[in-house]
Amino acid sequence: MDSSPLGHCSIAVKLLLDENLSDRIIHRISDLYLDSEQVKALGLKHAAENAIFEY
């Protein structure tokens, strides 16, 4: 029996963290949210909201 609350469905969630959040958060959640990034690491620090949204 599958212990996943979604049954056999597999959903991947990728986060884009705000520049005001600590860089250390990515390392703590990387096993739960693969390929997540922080705005600063992508060179989008101080970027306009629409530029971040388009990313």
Account of the protein in words:
The chain has 55 residues and is of the alpha+beta class. A two-stranded parallel ribbon has the order 1-2. The model has no long low-confidence stretch (mean pLDDT 84). The longest helix is centred in the middle third of the chain and has 6 residues. It is built from two helices and two strands. Helices cover 22% and strands 7% of the residues. The protein has one domain.
| Structural class designation | alpha+beta
Q: What is the spatial order of strands in the main beta sheet?
A: 1-2
> What is the first-to-last residue Cα distance?
38 Å
- Helix-residue proportion: 10-25%
What is the residue-averaged pLDDT?
84
What is the succession of H and E elements? EHEH
The best one-word shape is flat
Largest pleated sheet? 2 strands, parallel
Please tell me how large the radius of gyration is.
14 Å
* Strand content bin: 5-15%
Q: Can you tell me the number of structural domains?
A: 1
Oligomer: single chain
Number of helices: 2
Total number of beta strands: 2
Which consecutive residue ranges, at least 5 long each, have pLDDT under 50? none
